[in-house]
Amino acid sequence: MAGRKQFDMDTALDAAMIQFWRDGYADTSVDDLSRATGLNRSSLYSSLGAKDTLFLRCLDRYAARYGEKYDAALSGAASDPVAAVRAFFDVTLQRIADPELPDGCLIAQSAMAIPALSPSVAEHARQALGLQRRRLRAALKAGRLTDRDADAFAVHAAAVNQSLAVMSRAGASPAQLLAIVGVTVDALAQAPRA
Question: At 116, which CATH number?
Fold first, then answer.
């Protein structure tokens, strides 16, 4: 039928997300996005928006997709915060090990690119990064850590989580990544409960 969109929006958004994830915001051109989605430039703009708009949609899509998995992993924190944080890291390690996905993390990559991003996109990347810390803090508070320890471990675990993505992109082995997680989980196991 004339005038009807002949593509699947979810498929196109996933393709754009993977393109940004693989090459980063600055190194992804509109032509790259056109090739990845299978849409010509005018269809890309009319259906998905300009590059900044599309990037924000992809960042939100990524944050929601993995955010749900992180929330599920942390849901048992009230009864066992150490197991919940280990499950949180397992989400990241499984994503890293998935051969269908690019190395690293779209949020970590975006945070590192903040100087090259427009102010609104940079702020969005900061918010996505901050959400992970807030998610961890809430779980650790539910696990009865003191306010001070919940804050400190949330910042630390979020930083470790982002570093796993960076390290994987740099070629760290799964055993090395698991060892990094082990140090954090062991430290958390020693934290006093309120």
Answer: 1.10.357.10
Low-confidence ranges of the chain (pLDDT < 50): 1
Residue 33: inside a domain: no
- Cα 81 off chain centre by: 21
Nearest-angstrom CA–CA distance, 152 and 133:
10
Residues 97-119 have pLDDT tens digits of 999 999 889 998 898 899 989 99
* pLDDT of res. 1: 45
What are the b/e assignments for 94-120, b being 16+ CB within 10 Å? ebbeeeeebbbbbbbbbbebeeebeee
DSSP string covering 44-76, please?
HHHHH-SHHHHHHHHHHHHHHHHHHHHHHHHTT
Q: What is the pTM of this model?
A: 0.88
Number of domains forming the structure of the chain: 1
Name residue 155's beta-bridge partners.
Answer: none
Q: What is the CA radius of gyration of the chain?
A: 18
Q: Is 8 inside a domain boundary?
A: no
